[in-house]
Amino acid sequence: MQNRTSIIFGADFAVMNGIIAKFAKRFIAGMTNPLFYAKIILFGEYGMIEDSQGLVVPYSFYKGTLKFSENHSEFEAKSNGHLRKYADFLQELKLPEDFTLDVQRFKDDIDAGLFFDSNIPQGYGVGSSGALVAAIFEKYSLTRHDPENISKENLKNLKAVFGEMESYFHGKSSGMDPLICYMNLPILIENRENLDRVSIPDGEEGKGAIFLIDSGMTGETGPMIQIFFEKMKTEGFRKTLKEEFIRYNNACIDAFLKKDMNPFFRNLKKLSHWAYEHFRPMIPESIFNIWKKGLDSNAYYLKLCGSGGGGYILGFTKDYEKAEKMLEGFQKEVIYRF
């Protein structure tokens, strides 16, 4: 018969073994869970709804990943609670067979302390929900989808699936944000039906730059999209969107991908001026004056970054040092040099 000490030691050893196994599982999961980066719509905001081209790129400054936590901080507990509600939504979602999710495993992991560890700001137009959707799909999809080898047709199907998954956050989603976050590659949207991976010119340490300006307030996608659809009921707005905005937008994309900067900035000014005239409700109040200042001085041009209403605004300039001085007082982040 074993003495009492050996029984206690055996029990303690078993408990310790369980704790070690649990922490090992969490550690391995943390090591293997990939990072999902934010995204930036360089061109195509709103226009893509009406079949314009779009150019969307990943932005590695902001990122998120799924992790486990034994002792929830307030942030981790809140994230865990959001995931729990989202899992209920996903359980009711009917996805195509090749894109089915293991929602029960997702729920089990939530019970075990899963949360989304992210520094991507919400309401800033850089894809906070897109990164989350991409992370969940990558971890819980029953079929493996290799971003490097995915076909053009499956790319389109994946975008549609991501649209269904992200609709929980915005009411309606194109699926573009999660697709960019998942692929971690620039994507050119040619029209509603066609999209493909694309190479953007290598950045270099020149005087020019594409940069973000913090408007100092968050924006909500839903209300901004509602304003857009209300404007679309007006024939004059529909006409100018199709005949001017889309033309300037597509010309900017074409020139940027060719790194042909003279026609790029020529069309960019037209695009910025059009947005200043027709997207007023989407431009944060704090940005009105500097938007006009850029147009008047030709020192830089601004455009929406996503749906607008707040968050980040995109800036483009041939001389960043000059633009930076003119935009003193605003928080800025350079995302591309040329």
UniProtKB/TrEMBL annotation:
<keyword id="KW-0460">Magnesium</keyword>
<dbReference type="InterPro" id="IPR036554">
    <property type="entry name" value="GHMP_kinase_C_sf"/>
</dbReference>
<keyword id="KW-0443">Lipid metabolism</keyword>
<dbReference type="InterPro" id="IPR014721">
    <property type="entry name" value="Ribsml_uS5_D2-typ_fold_subgr"/>
</dbReference>
<protein>
    <submittedName>
        <fullName>Mevalonate kinase</fullName>
        <ecNumber>2.7.1.36</ecNumber>
    </submittedName>
</protein>
<feature type="domain" description="GHMP kinase C-terminal">
    <location>
        <begin position="254"/>
        <end position="332"/>
    </location>
</feature>
<dbReference type="InterPro" id="IPR020568">
    <property type="entry name" value="Ribosomal_Su5_D2-typ_SF"/>
</dbReference>
<dbReference type="InterPro" id="IPR013750">
    <property type="entry name" value="GHMP_kinase_C_dom"/>
</dbReference>
<dbReference type="InterPro" id="IPR001174">
    <property type="entry name" value="HddA/FKP"/>
</dbReference>
<dbReference type="InterPro" id="IPR006204">
    <property type="entry name" value="GHMP_kinase_N_dom"/>
</dbReference>
<dbReference type="Pfam" id="PF00288">
    <property type="entry name" value="GHMP_kinases_N"/>
</dbReference>
<keyword id="KW-0547">Nucleotide-binding</keyword>
<keyword id="KW-0444">Lipid biosynthesis</keyword>
<keyword id="KW-0808">Transferase</keyword>
<keyword id="KW-0963">Cytoplasm</keyword>
<comment type="pathway">
    <text>Isoprenoid biosynthesis; isopentenyl diphosphate biosynthesis via mevalonate pathway; isopentenyl diphosphate from (R)-mevalonate: step 1/3.</text>
</comment>
<feature type="domain" description="GHMP kinase N-terminal">
    <location>
        <begin position="114"/>
        <end position="183"/>
    </location>
</feature>
<dbReference type="Pfam" id="PF08544">
    <property type="entry name" value="GHMP_kinases_C"/>
</dbReference>
<keyword id="KW-0067">ATP-binding</keyword>
<dbReference type="GO" id="GO:0004496">
    <property type="term" value="F:mevalonate kinase activity"/>
</dbReference>
<keyword id="KW-0418">Kinase</keyword>
<dbReference type="InterPro" id="IPR006205">
    <property type="entry name" value="Mev_gal_kin"/>
</dbReference>
